[in-house]
Amino acid sequence: MNSNNNILVKLNNAGFRQSEKWLVEGVSLTVEKGKIVTLIGPNGSGKSTTAKIALGIYKNIEGTVEKYTTKVGYVPQKISIDWTLPIRVYDFMLLTETIEDSAIDEALSLTGVIHLKNKNLGSLSGGEFQRVLIARAISKKPELLVLDEPVQGVDYTGEIALYELIKKISDTLNCGILLISHDLHMVMKATDHVVCLNGHVCCSGSPIDVAKNNEYKALFGEKASQILTTYEHKHDHVHSDEGEIKKN
Amino acid sequence: MFDDFFIRALVAGIGIAFVTGPLGCFVVWRRLSYFGDTLSHSALLGVTMAYTFDLNIAISVFLISSVIALILIQLQKKTNLPGDALLGLLAHSSLAVGLVVIGFLTFIRFDIMGLLFGDILAVTTNDLLVIWTGGALILIVLKLIWKPLLASTVNYELAEAEGLNPDRAKAIFTILMAAVIAISIKMVGLLLITGMLIIPAAMARNISDSPQKMVLFSIIGGLLSVILGLYSSLEFNTSSGPSIIAAALILFILSLFKIKQSIKLKN
Fold it and tell me: What is the helix, strand, coil percentage profile of chain B, to 5?
Protein backbone atom coordinates (compact mmCIF):
# COMPACT_ATOMS: atom_id res chain seq x y z
CA MET A 1 0.00 0.00 0.00
CA ASN A 2 2.77 2.38 0.96
CA SER A 3 4.96 2.35 -2.12
CA ASN A 4 7.15 5.14 -0.80
CA ASN A 5 8.13 4.23 2.71
CA ASN A 6 9.19 7.77 3.51
CA ILE A 7 5.57 8.82 3.67
CA LEU A 8 4.29 9.49 7.19
CA VAL A 9 0.82 10.79 6.50
CA LYS A 10 -1.13 11.24 3.30
CA LEU A 11 -4.41 13.09 2.85
CA ASN A 12 -6.43 12.19 -0.22
CA ASN A 13 -9.10 14.71 -1.13
CA ALA A 14 -9.86 15.11 2.57
CA GLY A 15 -12.48 17.44 3.99
CA PHE A 16 -14.47 18.03 7.14
CA ARG A 17 -17.98 19.34 7.56
CA GLN A 18 -19.43 20.66 10.79
CA SER A 19 -23.20 21.23 10.98
CA GLU A 20 -23.59 21.45 7.20
CA LYS A 21 -20.72 23.88 6.79
CA TRP A 22 -17.50 22.77 5.14
CA LEU A 23 -14.55 23.84 7.27
CA VAL A 24 -12.20 22.61 4.59
CA GLU A 25 -12.54 20.32 1.58
CA GLY A 26 -10.57 18.61 -1.12
CA VAL A 27 -7.19 18.71 0.58
CA SER A 28 -4.51 16.39 -0.70
CA LEU A 29 -1.05 16.53 0.78
CA THR A 30 1.77 14.28 1.86
CA VAL A 31 4.22 14.66 4.71
CA GLU A 32 7.42 12.70 4.30
CA LYS A 33 10.31 11.96 6.63
CA GLY A 34 12.73 14.86 6.98
CA LYS A 35 10.45 17.26 5.11
CA ILE A 36 8.62 20.34 6.33
CA VAL A 37 5.19 21.03 4.87
CA THR A 38 3.73 24.40 5.74
CA LEU A 39 0.06 25.33 5.64
CA ILE A 40 -0.69 28.99 5.06
CA GLY A 41 -3.93 30.83 4.53
CA PRO A 42 -6.17 33.52 6.01
CA ASN A 43 -8.12 33.08 9.27
CA GLY A 44 -10.85 30.48 8.93
CA SER A 45 -9.25 28.95 5.84
CA GLY A 46 -9.11 25.50 7.43
CA LYS A 47 -5.47 25.23 8.44
CA SER A 48 -6.06 23.88 11.93
CA THR A 49 -8.88 21.69 10.62
CA THR A 50 -6.52 20.17 8.06
CA ALA A 51 -3.98 19.47 10.80
CA LYS A 52 -6.64 17.81 12.93
CA ILE A 53 -7.75 15.68 9.98
CA ALA A 54 -4.15 14.56 9.50
CA LEU A 55 -3.87 13.75 13.20
CA GLY A 56 -7.09 11.73 13.24
CA ILE A 57 -8.81 14.01 15.75
CA TYR A 58 -11.75 14.48 13.41
CA LYS A 59 -13.35 11.15 12.66
CA ASN A 60 -16.23 11.67 10.22
CA ILE A 61 -14.25 13.08 7.36
CA GLU A 62 -14.64 13.05 3.61
CA GLY A 63 -11.82 11.49 1.63
CA THR A 64 -9.14 9.42 3.30
CA VAL A 65 -6.15 9.78 5.58
CA GLU A 66 -3.37 7.24 5.40
CA LYS A 67 -1.14 7.36 8.44
CA TYR A 68 2.06 5.34 8.60
CA THR A 69 3.33 6.29 12.03
CA THR A 70 2.09 6.25 15.60
CA LYS A 71 4.90 8.36 17.00
CA VAL A 72 3.26 11.75 16.82
CA GLY A 73 4.06 15.02 18.55
CA TYR A 74 1.39 17.74 18.50
CA VAL A 75 1.48 21.38 19.44
CA PRO A 76 -2.16 22.52 19.32
CA GLN A 77 -3.11 26.09 18.57
CA LYS A 78 -5.26 26.57 21.60
CA ILE A 79 -4.87 24.78 24.89
CA SER A 80 -6.22 25.81 28.24
CA ILE A 81 -5.07 24.11 31.39
CA ASP A 82 -7.71 23.77 34.04
CA TRP A 83 -6.80 25.15 37.45
CA THR A 84 -8.46 22.22 39.16
CA LEU A 85 -5.58 20.01 38.06
CA PRO A 86 -2.29 20.66 39.83
CA ILE A 87 0.34 19.97 37.21
CA ARG A 88 3.96 20.99 36.91
CA VAL A 89 5.92 21.40 33.69
CA TYR A 90 7.66 18.14 34.56
CA ASP A 91 4.35 16.22 34.83
CA PHE A 92 3.18 17.80 31.60
CA MET A 93 6.28 16.55 29.77
CA LEU A 94 5.30 13.00 30.72
CA LEU A 95 1.67 13.45 29.74
CA THR A 96 1.34 11.13 26.77
CA GLU A 97 4.50 9.06 26.96
CA THR A 98 6.95 7.98 29.62
CA ILE A 99 10.31 9.45 28.69
CA GLU A 100 13.63 9.62 30.49
CA ASP A 101 14.58 12.58 32.64
CA SER A 102 17.58 13.29 30.44
CA ALA A 103 15.33 13.60 27.37
CA ILE A 104 13.03 15.95 29.27
CA ASP A 105 15.93 18.15 30.35
CA GLU A 106 17.37 18.19 26.86
CA ALA A 107 14.08 19.26 25.26
CA LEU A 108 13.41 21.94 27.87
CA SER A 109 16.95 23.27 27.41
CA LEU A 110 16.58 23.39 23.63
CA THR A 111 13.48 25.59 23.92
CA GLY A 112 15.07 27.64 26.70
CA VAL A 113 12.72 26.81 29.57
CA ILE A 114 14.69 24.33 31.67
CA HIS A 115 14.49 26.71 34.65
CA LEU A 116 10.68 26.26 34.66
CA LYS A 117 10.81 22.48 35.07
CA ASN A 118 9.23 22.41 38.53
CA LYS A 119 6.91 25.37 38.05
CA ASN A 120 3.17 24.93 37.97
CA LEU A 121 1.87 24.98 34.42
CA GLY A 122 -0.76 27.55 35.35
CA SER A 123 1.86 30.08 36.45
CA LEU A 124 3.61 30.33 33.06
CA SER A 125 3.29 33.24 30.67
CA GLY A 126 1.91 32.65 27.16
CA GLY A 127 5.35 32.59 25.55
CA GLU A 128 6.83 30.32 28.23
CA PHE A 129 3.93 27.92 27.90
CA GLN A 130 4.38 27.83 24.14
CA ARG A 131 8.03 26.84 24.60
CA VAL A 132 6.97 24.08 26.99
CA LEU A 133 4.45 22.83 24.44
CA ILE A 134 7.16 22.61 21.77
CA ALA A 135 9.55 20.93 24.21
CA ARG A 136 6.91 18.34 25.10
CA ALA A 137 6.22 17.55 21.46
CA ILE A 138 9.90 17.10 20.52
CA SER A 139 11.02 15.32 23.68
CA LYS A 140 9.27 12.12 22.65
CA LYS A 141 11.31 12.06 19.44
CA PRO A 142 8.30 11.79 17.16
CA GLU A 143 8.34 10.70 13.54
CA LEU A 144 5.59 13.16 12.72
CA LEU A 145 5.48 16.59 14.31
CA VAL A 146 2.38 18.74 13.86
CA LEU A 147 2.86 22.35 14.91
CA ASP A 148 -0.12 24.69 14.88
CA GLU A 149 1.13 28.26 15.26
CA PRO A 150 3.94 27.02 17.51
CA VAL A 151 5.54 30.40 18.26
CA GLN A 152 2.45 32.45 19.10
CA GLY A 153 3.15 34.79 21.98
CA VAL A 154 6.90 34.20 21.79
CA ASP A 155 9.13 37.30 21.56
CA TYR A 156 10.72 38.13 18.23
CA THR A 157 14.24 36.85 18.88
CA GLY A 158 12.80 33.73 20.47
CA GLU A 159 10.68 33.21 17.38
CA ILE A 160 13.73 33.10 15.09
CA ALA A 161 15.52 30.74 17.45
CA LEU A 162 12.51 28.41 17.70
CA TYR A 163 12.07 28.24 13.93
CA GLU A 164 15.75 27.42 13.60
CA LEU A 165 15.25 24.76 16.25
CA ILE A 166 12.31 23.29 14.34
CA LYS A 167 14.42 23.13 11.19
CA LYS A 168 17.23 21.48 13.14
CA ILE A 169 14.86 18.92 14.64
CA SER A 170 13.56 17.99 11.24
CA ASP A 171 17.16 17.36 10.13
CA THR A 172 18.47 15.55 13.22
CA LEU A 173 15.43 13.40 13.99
CA ASN A 174 14.60 13.01 10.31
CA CYS A 175 10.97 13.54 11.24
CA GLY A 176 8.27 14.99 9.03
CA ILE A 177 6.77 18.29 10.09
CA LEU A 178 3.36 19.72 9.31
CA LEU A 179 3.60 23.37 10.23
CA ILE A 180 0.96 26.06 10.39
CA SER A 181 2.20 29.60 10.53
CA HIS A 182 1.25 33.15 9.74
CA ASP A 183 4.80 34.32 9.62
CA LEU A 184 5.59 34.01 5.94
CA HIS A 185 9.19 35.13 5.61
CA MET A 186 10.20 33.31 8.75
CA VAL A 187 8.79 30.01 7.64
CA MET A 188 9.77 30.01 4.02
CA LYS A 189 13.46 29.58 4.61
CA ALA A 190 13.06 26.08 5.91
CA THR A 191 9.92 24.86 4.21
CA ASP A 192 10.08 22.21 1.51
CA HIS A 193 6.47 22.40 0.45
CA VAL A 194 3.81 25.05 0.92
CA VAL A 195 0.07 24.44 0.81
CA CYS A 196 -1.99 27.59 0.56
CA LEU A 197 -5.51 27.08 1.89
CA ASN A 198 -8.68 29.06 1.63
CA GLY A 199 -11.37 26.51 2.44
CA HIS A 200 -9.76 24.39 -0.25
CA VAL A 201 -6.24 24.09 -1.63
CA CYS A 202 -5.77 27.31 -3.51
CA CYS A 203 -2.26 26.47 -4.62
CA SER A 204 0.68 24.41 -3.50
CA GLY A 205 4.29 23.71 -4.33
CA SER A 206 7.72 24.98 -3.40
CA PRO A 207 7.78 28.38 -1.64
CA ILE A 208 8.94 30.05 -4.84
CA ASP A 209 6.23 28.44 -6.97
CA VAL A 210 3.57 29.47 -4.49
CA ALA A 211 4.90 33.02 -4.29
CA LYS A 212 4.60 33.37 -8.06
CA ASN A 213 1.11 31.91 -8.13
CA ASN A 214 -1.59 34.41 -9.03
CA GLU A 215 -4.16 32.98 -6.62
CA TYR A 216 -1.65 33.35 -3.83
CA LYS A 217 -1.06 36.95 -4.80
CA ALA A 218 -4.79 37.59 -4.81
CA LEU A 219 -5.12 36.09 -1.35
CA PHE A 220 -2.12 37.65 0.38
CA GLY A 221 -1.27 40.60 -1.82
CA GLU A 222 1.73 41.53 -3.91
CA LYS A 223 3.86 42.32 -0.87
CA ALA A 224 3.60 38.85 0.58
CA SER A 225 4.68 37.49 -2.74
CA GLN A 226 7.79 39.65 -2.62
CA ILE A 227 8.57 38.35 0.85
CA LEU A 228 8.69 34.82 -0.43
CA THR A 229 10.71 35.50 -3.53
CA THR A 230 13.34 37.33 -1.52
CA TYR A 231 14.40 34.01 -0.11
CA GLU A 232 15.50 32.99 -3.55
CA HIS A 233 18.35 35.42 -3.21
CA LYS A 234 19.81 35.43 0.25
CA HIS A 235 21.31 38.50 1.94
CA ASP A 236 19.62 40.99 -0.30
CA HIS A 237 17.71 42.58 2.55
CA VAL A 238 17.89 43.56 6.20
CA HIS A 239 15.30 43.23 8.95
CA SER A 240 14.10 46.35 10.71
CA ASP A 241 13.25 46.29 14.40
CA GLU A 242 9.62 45.63 13.60
CA GLY A 243 10.54 42.61 11.55
CA GLU A 244 9.76 44.36 8.27
CA ILE A 245 11.97 43.52 5.36
CA LYS A 246 13.96 46.35 3.86
CA LYS A 247 15.57 45.77 0.51
CA ASN A 248 19.21 46.67 0.25
CA MET B 1 -11.42 -11.01 63.72
CA PHE B 2 -14.34 -9.78 61.65
CA ASP B 3 -16.88 -10.79 64.28
CA ASP B 4 -17.03 -7.30 65.70
CA PHE B 5 -19.35 -5.16 63.57
CA PHE B 6 -17.12 -2.14 64.17
CA ILE B 7 -13.98 -3.85 62.90
CA ARG B 8 -15.93 -4.92 59.82
CA ALA B 9 -17.07 -1.35 59.23
CA LEU B 10 -13.54 -0.03 59.69
CA VAL B 11 -12.04 -2.55 57.26
CA ALA B 12 -14.79 -1.81 54.75
CA GLY B 13 -14.33 1.95 55.08
CA ILE B 14 -10.57 1.72 54.64
CA GLY B 15 -11.06 -0.33 51.48
CA ILE B 16 -13.49 2.25 50.15
CA ALA B 17 -11.15 5.18 50.92
CA PHE B 18 -8.37 3.60 48.86
CA VAL B 19 -10.65 3.61 45.82
CA THR B 20 -12.55 6.87 46.27
CA GLY B 21 -9.25 8.77 46.71
CA PRO B 22 -7.91 8.44 43.16
CA LEU B 23 -11.33 8.26 41.50
CA GLY B 24 -12.42 11.36 43.38
CA CYS B 25 -9.47 13.29 41.96
CA PHE B 26 -10.68 12.54 38.45
CA VAL B 27 -14.22 13.51 39.45
CA VAL B 28 -12.89 16.90 40.57
CA TRP B 29 -10.57 17.35 37.58
CA ARG B 30 -13.17 16.36 35.01
CA ARG B 31 -16.01 18.24 36.75
CA LEU B 32 -18.09 15.13 37.21
CA SER B 33 -19.58 15.70 40.65
CA TYR B 34 -23.13 15.94 39.33
CA PHE B 35 -22.50 12.89 37.23
CA GLY B 36 -21.50 11.07 40.42
CA ASP B 37 -24.67 12.28 42.09
CA THR B 38 -26.78 10.98 39.23
CA LEU B 39 -25.18 7.56 39.33
CA SER B 40 -25.50 7.27 43.11
CA HIS B 41 -29.14 8.40 43.15
CA SER B 42 -29.93 5.76 40.58
CA ALA B 43 -28.35 3.25 42.94
CA LEU B 44 -31.57 3.17 44.97
CA LEU B 45 -33.22 1.47 42.04
CA GLY B 46 -30.37 -1.04 42.09
CA VAL B 47 -30.94 -1.73 45.77
CA THR B 48 -34.66 -2.36 45.27
CA MET B 49 -33.81 -4.71 42.40
CA ALA B 50 -31.41 -6.58 44.65
CA TYR B 51 -34.13 -7.10 47.27
CA THR B 52 -36.79 -8.04 44.73
CA PHE B 53 -34.71 -10.63 42.91
CA ASP B 54 -32.51 -11.60 45.87
CA LEU B 55 -29.26 -10.42 44.22
CA ASN B 56 -26.05 -9.10 45.73
CA ILE B 57 -26.61 -5.37 46.34
CA ALA B 58 -23.23 -4.28 45.00
CA ILE B 59 -23.66 -6.18 41.73
CA SER B 60 -27.22 -5.00 41.24
CA VAL B 61 -26.28 -1.35 41.95
CA PHE B 62 -23.33 -1.63 39.59
CA LEU B 63 -25.58 -2.89 36.79
CA ILE B 64 -28.24 -0.21 37.24
CA SER B 65 -25.68 2.61 37.53
CA SER B 66 -23.97 1.42 34.36
CA VAL B 67 -27.30 1.36 32.52
CA ILE B 68 -28.09 4.90 33.72
CA ALA B 69 -24.65 6.05 32.52
CA LEU B 70 -25.34 4.52 29.09
CA ILE B 71 -28.76 6.20 28.92
CA LEU B 72 -27.12 9.51 29.81
CA ILE B 73 -24.56 9.18 27.00
CA GLN B 74 -27.37 8.36 24.54
CA LEU B 75 -29.49 11.31 25.70
CA GLN B 76 -26.50 13.63 25.38
CA LYS B 77 -26.11 12.57 21.77
CA LYS B 78 -29.79 12.64 20.81
CA THR B 79 -31.22 15.71 22.57
CA ASN B 80 -30.34 19.39 22.66
CA LEU B 81 -30.78 19.64 26.43
CA PRO B 82 -27.76 20.87 28.38
CA GLY B 83 -25.74 18.29 30.31
CA ASP B 84 -26.74 19.46 33.79
CA ALA B 85 -30.45 19.30 32.93
CA LEU B 86 -30.06 15.71 31.71
CA LEU B 87 -28.15 14.79 34.87
CA GLY B 88 -30.86 16.33 37.06
CA LEU B 89 -33.54 14.57 35.07
CA LEU B 90 -31.91 11.17 35.48
CA ALA B 91 -30.85 11.69 39.10
CA HIS B 92 -34.23 12.71 40.42
CA SER B 93 -36.36 10.47 38.27
CA SER B 94 -34.33 7.39 39.16
CA LEU B 95 -34.45 8.32 42.84
CA ALA B 96 -38.21 8.85 42.59
CA VAL B 97 -38.78 5.59 40.72
CA GLY B 98 -36.67 3.79 43.31
CA LEU B 99 -38.75 5.20 46.18
CA VAL B 100 -42.01 4.34 44.39
CA VAL B 101 -40.84 0.77 43.86
CA ILE B 102 -39.95 0.54 47.57
CA GLY B 103 -43.55 1.58 48.32
CA PHE B 104 -44.77 -1.44 46.38
CA LEU B 105 -42.41 -3.86 48.10
CA THR B 106 -44.49 -4.00 51.28
CA PHE B 107 -43.32 -7.52 52.06
CA ILE B 108 -39.77 -6.26 52.75
CA ARG B 109 -38.88 -4.00 55.64
CA PHE B 110 -36.58 -1.28 54.35
CA ASP B 111 -34.26 0.82 56.40
CA ILE B 112 -34.53 3.90 54.19
CA MET B 113 -32.29 5.98 56.44
CA GLY B 114 -29.62 3.31 56.23
CA LEU B 115 -29.83 3.29 52.45
CA LEU B 116 -29.61 7.05 52.13
CA PHE B 117 -26.99 7.76 54.79
CA GLY B 118 -25.13 4.49 55.33
CA ASP B 119 -25.23 2.02 58.19
CA ILE B 120 -22.19 0.49 59.84
CA LEU B 121 -24.28 -2.32 61.28
CA ALA B 122 -25.17 -3.47 57.79
CA VAL B 123 -21.65 -4.42 56.67
CA THR B 124 -21.27 -8.21 56.48
CA THR B 125 -18.14 -10.31 55.97
CA ASN B 126 -19.38 -10.95 52.46
CA ASP B 127 -19.46 -7.19 51.85
CA LEU B 128 -15.82 -6.96 52.89
CA LEU B 129 -14.95 -9.48 50.20
CA VAL B 130 -16.88 -7.47 47.60
CA ILE B 131 -15.29 -4.17 48.69
CA TRP B 132 -11.72 -5.42 48.75
CA THR B 133 -11.74 -7.53 45.59
CA GLY B 134 -13.90 -5.01 43.74
CA GLY B 135 -11.73 -2.18 45.02
CA ALA B 136 -8.53 -3.90 43.97
CA LEU B 137 -9.96 -4.49 40.48
CA ILE B 138 -11.02 -0.85 40.18
CA LEU B 139 -7.55 0.35 41.16
CA ILE B 140 -5.81 -2.02 38.74
CA VAL B 141 -8.01 -0.85 35.86
CA LEU B 142 -7.52 2.79 36.85
CA LYS B 143 -3.76 2.27 36.87
CA LEU B 144 -4.00 0.82 33.35
CA ILE B 145 -5.97 3.78 31.96
CA TRP B 146 -4.16 6.40 34.06
CA LYS B 147 -2.10 7.89 31.24
CA PRO B 148 -4.82 8.29 28.59
CA LEU B 149 -7.33 9.44 31.20
CA LEU B 150 -5.00 12.06 32.68
CA ALA B 151 -3.81 13.20 29.24
CA SER B 152 -7.36 13.65 27.98
CA THR B 153 -8.29 15.45 31.20
CA VAL B 154 -5.55 17.97 30.41
CA ASN B 155 -6.35 18.17 26.71
CA TYR B 156 -8.57 15.82 24.74
CA GLU B 157 -7.12 16.65 21.33
CA LEU B 158 -3.55 16.18 22.46
CA ALA B 159 -4.40 12.72 23.79
CA GLU B 160 -6.31 11.80 20.64
CA ALA B 161 -3.61 13.14 18.30
CA GLU B 162 -0.85 11.23 20.04
CA GLY B 163 -2.74 7.95 19.88
CA LEU B 164 -3.96 7.46 23.46
CA ASN B 165 -7.59 6.68 22.65
CA PRO B 166 -9.24 9.02 25.17
CA ASP B 167 -12.78 7.89 24.30
CA ARG B 168 -12.04 4.36 25.46
CA ALA B 169 -10.46 5.66 28.68
CA LYS B 170 -13.54 7.80 29.34
CA ALA B 171 -15.91 4.87 28.81
CA ILE B 172 -13.90 2.65 31.16
CA PHE B 173 -13.79 5.43 33.75
CA THR B 174 -17.58 5.69 33.65
CA ILE B 175 -17.82 1.99 34.46
CA LEU B 176 -15.35 2.46 37.33
CA MET B 177 -17.58 5.23 38.71
CA ALA B 178 -20.55 2.87 38.73
CA ALA B 179 -18.39 0.25 40.44
CA VAL B 180 -17.13 2.52 43.21
CA ILE B 181 -20.68 3.61 43.98
CA ALA B 182 -21.73 -0.02 44.11
CA ILE B 183 -19.10 -0.97 46.68
CA SER B 184 -19.52 2.08 48.90
CA ILE B 185 -23.31 2.40 49.02
CA LYS B 186 -23.87 0.40 52.22
CA MET B 187 -21.28 2.27 54.17
CA VAL B 188 -21.64 5.87 53.00
CA GLY B 189 -25.23 5.85 51.80
CA LEU B 190 -26.39 6.85 48.36
CA LEU B 191 -26.94 10.54 49.11
CA LEU B 192 -23.40 11.04 50.36
CA ILE B 193 -21.18 8.92 48.10
CA THR B 194 -20.30 11.91 45.91
CA GLY B 195 -19.14 13.71 49.05
CA MET B 196 -16.76 10.84 49.77
CA LEU B 197 -15.41 11.21 46.22
CA ILE B 198 -15.12 14.99 46.14
CA ILE B 199 -14.28 16.27 49.62
CA PRO B 200 -11.00 14.39 50.24
CA ALA B 201 -9.93 15.21 46.66
CA ALA B 202 -10.79 18.88 47.17
CA MET B 203 -8.82 18.83 50.41
CA ALA B 204 -5.88 17.25 48.57
CA ARG B 205 -6.04 19.91 45.83
CA ASN B 206 -5.29 22.57 48.42
CA ILE B 207 -2.02 20.96 49.44
CA SER B 208 -0.69 19.34 46.23
CA ASP B 209 1.35 20.53 43.29
CA SER B 210 1.20 17.45 41.07
CA PRO B 211 -1.48 14.93 40.04
CA GLN B 212 0.27 12.05 41.82
CA LYS B 213 0.53 13.97 45.09
CA MET B 214 -3.11 14.95 44.89
CA VAL B 215 -4.10 11.30 44.53
CA LEU B 216 -1.91 10.33 47.47
CA PHE B 217 -3.25 13.08 49.77
CA SER B 218 -6.78 12.31 48.65
CA ILE B 219 -6.36 8.68 49.76
CA ILE B 220 -4.84 9.75 53.07
CA GLY B 221 -7.68 12.24 53.59
CA GLY B 222 -10.25 9.57 52.83
CA LEU B 223 -8.64 7.11 55.26
CA LEU B 224 -8.57 9.69 58.06
CA SER B 225 -12.18 10.66 57.34
CA VAL B 226 -13.30 7.02 57.54
CA ILE B 227 -11.45 6.34 60.77
CA LEU B 228 -12.48 9.59 62.48
CA GLY B 229 -16.01 9.34 61.13
CA LEU B 230 -16.59 5.76 62.21
CA TYR B 231 -15.28 6.31 65.72
CA SER B 232 -17.51 9.33 66.18
CA SER B 233 -20.41 7.41 64.65
CA LEU B 234 -19.89 4.78 67.33
CA GLU B 235 -19.41 7.36 70.04
CA PHE B 236 -22.38 9.59 69.24
CA ASN B 237 -24.63 6.95 67.69
CA THR B 238 -24.91 8.85 64.39
CA SER B 239 -25.26 7.42 60.86
CA SER B 240 -21.92 6.37 59.41
CA GLY B 241 -22.21 8.31 56.14
CA PRO B 242 -22.76 11.78 57.60
CA SER B 243 -20.10 11.17 60.25
CA ILE B 244 -17.48 10.25 57.64
CA ILE B 245 -18.39 13.20 55.40
CA ALA B 246 -18.34 15.61 58.37
CA ALA B 247 -14.85 14.35 59.26
CA ALA B 248 -13.79 14.91 55.64
CA LEU B 249 -15.17 18.43 55.81
CA ILE B 250 -13.09 19.18 58.90
CA LEU B 251 -9.96 17.99 57.06
CA PHE B 252 -10.91 20.19 54.11
CA ILE B 253 -11.25 23.22 56.37
CA LEU B 254 -7.84 22.48 57.90
CA SER B 255 -6.33 22.30 54.43
CA LEU B 256 -7.54 25.84 53.76
CA PHE B 257 -5.10 27.09 56.40
CA LYS B 258 -2.28 25.54 54.43
CA ILE B 259 -3.29 27.65 51.42
CA LYS B 260 -3.34 30.76 53.56
CA GLN B 261 0.15 29.95 54.77
CA SER B 262 1.57 29.39 51.32
CA ILE B 263 0.04 32.65 50.09
CA LYS B 264 1.68 34.42 53.03
CA LEU B 265 5.00 32.80 52.20
CA LYS B 266 4.77 33.98 48.60
CA ASN B 267 4.14 37.53 49.73
Answer: 85, 0, 15
